[in-house]
Design goal:
Helices cover 74% and strands 0% of the residues. By secondary structure, the protein is mainly α.
Length: 115
């Protein structure tokens, strides 16, 4: 059976919570906050756990490291793609020139002809 609360929590947009929300909410204030923000009480409990745990800080460092490596990989791939595009354009230009020279009846020049 599928837990609808966890599906809603996963599909709900991620919110950036500030430190302005007190960690020691009583039940009535927590219920009021939930109604105002459209949350369930388990969202606030999860936020408290995430906020208090060191895992979040470690996870943030890992995510930043992963983002940096992905950016570097993306940069390298773009550079390689640009290089290949230039090589392809050069090859296409050479093929066009070769076709033009064969149409006009001129013999094509090869590397052996230049020696």
């Amino acid at each position: 059976m599928v837990d609808t609360h966890s599906i809603l929590a996963l599909t709900r947009p991620v919110r950036k919570w500030s430190g302005s929300i007190p960690l020691s909410l009583d039940e009535s204030k927590a219920s009021e906050l939930c109604r105002e923000q459209g949350l369930y009480s388990h969202h606030i409990n999860q936020w408290k756990q995430d906020f208090m745990s060191e895992h979040v800080a470690n996870n943030k460092a890992k995510v930043q490291s992963e983002i940096k490596s992905l950016r570097n990989e993306n940069k390298a791939l773009k550079k390689e793609l640009n290089r290949k595009d230039k090589a392809l354009a050069e090859t296409a230009a050479l093929l066009v020139l070769q076709k033009k020279s064969t149409r006009s009846g001129e013999p094509t020049r090869t590397a052996h002809d230049e020696c």
